[in-house]
Design goal:
The complex is a heterotrimer of chains A (147), B (128) and C (334). Chain A is built from eight helices and no strands. Chain A is mainly α and 147 residues long. Chain A has one domain. Chain B is mainly α and 128 residues long. Chain B is built from seven helices and no strands. Chain B has helices at 3-6, 9-32, 37-53, 57-64, 66-69, 72-90, 93-120. In chain B, α3 (37-53) packs across α6 (72-90). Chain C has two domains: 2-174, Peroxisomal Thiolase, Chain A, domain 1 (3-Layer(aba) Sandwich), CATH 3.40.47; 181-333, Stage V sporulation protein AD (Peroxisomal Thiolase, Chain A, domain 1), CATH 3.40.47. In chain C, 35% of the residues lie in helices and 23% in strands. Chain C has a seven-stranded mixed beta sheet, sandwiched between helices. In chain C, β3, α1 (26-29) and β4 (39-40) form a beta-alpha-beta unit. In chain C, α6 (201-220) packs across α7. Chain C is globular. Classes of the chains: A mainly alpha (147), B mainly alpha (128), C alpha/beta (334). Chains A and B meet through α2, α3, α4, α5 and α6 of A and α2, α3, α5, α6 and α7 of B.
Chain lengths: 147, 128, 334
């Protein structure tokens, strides 16, 4: 190997030396777990409709149930094991959003229930709400031009 | 007719596959880029809101049901859909009300259960 | 003491490492070096309410243990150099607040242990002190919380990530004694080769280790083969390989005598620690637990200990800064 002189050379060399994540295995796991979580959501949805709820309410029930289950699994220290296995499979569904709120809430409990739990709860999920809600406001304003 | 007989298995398969594929895209972002989980979630919710605002995402929901609503893109699309609907009845004020109103259940559940979990659970090391 | 070459100091009255102590967490207790540590904890809290309190307790108990093992009354220990990874070094200052020994809080990230040894050696050789205590600690959970994500977050660790060692290592160094002696110190320069990935610390720190290693060898006009072992702090599997190749490209073959504490402390395959251990306690516990005993038993007689540190924090990595790194070396000989 010839001596490395520049930062660029070193970065290229490190990229070559660093092992990649096992992407095929990860994608397979993500597909399987992600699909499974969505299917569970679908079954809950079907059940709500079967009980006579409308589309919007059913959809809300699905979110609430999946969020509640994720919160419990996070509290029981199980969600992080699922997450390690599934990667995006548990991150991308609404379960990942719930986990990203519950995990800092538990972690920062040691800083108190107001500024610790209450304040740090949104350290990861906060941006999701900021960007999601802001986009919806912009879209709503644009929509006024067309209605 | 009981509930089990009413399940649409074909629909469930479509839901599984679409939900799975949406997650695969996320996995590729995790493995191939240096994006943190928070950034990936932000991308998903924003893309979902844009697709929802353009009226495209509803076709995916029609096709895959929960396979499209459960991933975070569905959360984004729902925010956008709520804003547009509320604009129809309230005008520009609706842009500020509709989004959060439509996703209120999910947001409130996450906050409430998050707080509840923190009261009960203790931080633990991951044994991985 | 005199300065050799660019940045090495040769100690005329080489101080003796009198004794060492080490306490490690549960994961380290399952690793290959478990039997060498003084105490293995069963849980990360050790009866405390927070990770931070637990880390303070670990360093406190390690320091108490090394003082009693050294046989030197704590009144006769003149100074203490200690540091850790938590903001403003709170583990050390909180853990050692009842120690009643004049205290220098030092920060060199994971290089802190050897930074302490360097400073202690100069103090002792100059006559400013007779006995000095050096200690460091790190804790997987408090480090994850401060630098990365909450433990409950369901994220995946990339294969280049390293596992912060939970534990503490402490040594007492004296002006007079029967060895092992600290004969040379080579404080390192800050080296930044532009690595930005906080999940690839080994690669970020390897160039700093290389710089200190080559400077030390040139300054002392020694060959790598002079040493029985060259040991780096926490480059991990990837950083270790990189350092071997970088050294080779500069004409130094270290392959046979070189190892890394981050590689030694965990079993990569069974413990799923990816690229290996890291943290102040990595070199702290492995030197205190393992290498000191090897020196005492004369299984090793000359070692070069190079502690590596990534001088970064959570803010700088969010701001997209690269990771400046450092490596300090001490030569320890019988």
């Amino acid at each position: 190997m010839k001596p490395i002189e520049t930062k660029q050379e070193y970065n290229d060399y490190v990229d070559k030396k660093s092992p990649n994540s096992p992407i095929f295995k990860n994608c397979f796991n993500a597909f399987f777990v992600g699909g499974l979580i969505c299917s569970i959501g679908q079954i809950i949805m079907d059940f709500c409709k079967f009980k006579g709820m409308d589309e919007t309410i059913s959809s809300t029930v699905v979110s609430i149930v999946l969020i509640a289950v994720s919160a419990i699994l996070t509290g029981l220290n199980i969600f992080n094991k699922i997450g390690k296995f599934a990667g995006a499979g548990s991150l991308i569904p609404i379960t990942g959003f719930a986990n990203s709120i519950v995990s800092p809430a538990i972690e920062y409990k040691s800083e108190g229930y107001i500024m610790g739990v209450g304040g740090k709860m949104f350290t990861i999920a906060g941006p999701v709400l900021v960007f999601g809600i802001s986009s919806s406001v912009i879209i709503g304003i644009i929509a006024t031009l067309f209605i | 007719m009981n509930f089990l007989q009413s399940i649409d298995w074909m629909g469930l398969l479509k839901c599984f596959i679409v939900g799975g594929i949406i997650c695969i895209i996320g996995q590729i972002l995790i493995d191939k880029t240096k994006l943190t989980p928070a950034r990936i979630l932000v991308i998903y919710v924003t893309v979902g809101a844009i697709l929802g605002g353009l009226g495209i995402y509803k076709y995916l929901i029609e096709f895959a049901g929960a396979g499209a609503t459960v991933p975070l893109t569905g959360f984004g699309a729902n925010l956008a859909k709520g804003a547009i609907q509320e604009v129809k009845s309230l005008g520009v004020l609706g842009a500020f009300i509709g989004g959060v109103k439509a996703s209120a259940g999910g947001i409130a559940a996450a906050v409430f259960f998050g707080y509840l979990a923190s009261l009960i659970a203790k931080p633990k090391i991951k044994k991985q | 003491m005199i300065r050799l070459g660019k940045q090495t100091i040769k100690l005329n009255n080489p101080p003796t490492i009198v004794n060492t102590a080490s306490i490690v967490g549960p994961k380290e207790s399952e690793g290959p070096l478990a039997k060498y540590f003084d105490q293995c904890l069963e849980d990360e809290f050790w009866g405390e309410k927070t990770w931070e309190k637990a880390e303070s307790k670990i360093i406190k108990e390690t320091v108490n243990s090394v003082i009693s093992k050294s046989g030197i009354p704590s009144n006769d220990i003149n100074f203490c150099f200690a540091g850790d990874l938590l903001n403003q070094c709170i583990s050390s200052s909180f853990g050692l607040r009842e120690l009643n020994i004049p205290f220098f809080g030092i920060f060199g990230a994971c290089s802190t242990f050897v930074e302490g040894l360097c400073l202690a050696s100069v103090f002792l050789d100059s006559g400013a002190a007779n006995n000095i205590l050096c200690a460091t600690s790190s804790h997987f959970c408090s480090a994850e919380k401060q630098f990365r994500f909450p433990l409950e977050l369901g994220n995946q660790r990339p294969p280049t990530a390293q596992w912060t060692v939970t534990g503490s290592g402490a040594v007492v160094v004296s002006k007079v004694g029967t060895g092992p002696y600290i004969t040379h110190i080579t404080p390192g320069k800050i080296v930044d080769m532009g690595i930005k990935d906080a999940n690839n610390m080994g690669a970020a720190m390897a160039p700093a280790a290389l710089d200190t290693l080559i400077t030390h060898l040139n300054d002392t006009q020694r060959k790598p083969s002079y040493y029985d072992a060259i040991i780096t702090g926490d480059l991990g599997h990837i950083g270790k390989e990189i350092l071997i190749e970088l050294a080779e490209s500069k004409g130094f073959n270290i392959k046979n005598i070189y190892n890394d504490c981050g590689v030694l402390i965990f079993d990569k395959n069974s413990q799923d620690t990816h690229s290996g251990g890291s943290g102040c306690a990595c070199i702290g516990t492995v030197f205190s637990g393992y290498f000191f005993k090897q020196l005492k038993n004369r299984k090793l007689n000359r070692i070069l200990l190079i502690a590596t540190g990534a001088l970064t924090n959570a803010t700088s990595s969010q701001q997209g800064e690269s990771i400046p790194s450092i490596a300090h070396a001490v030569a320890i000989e019988n």
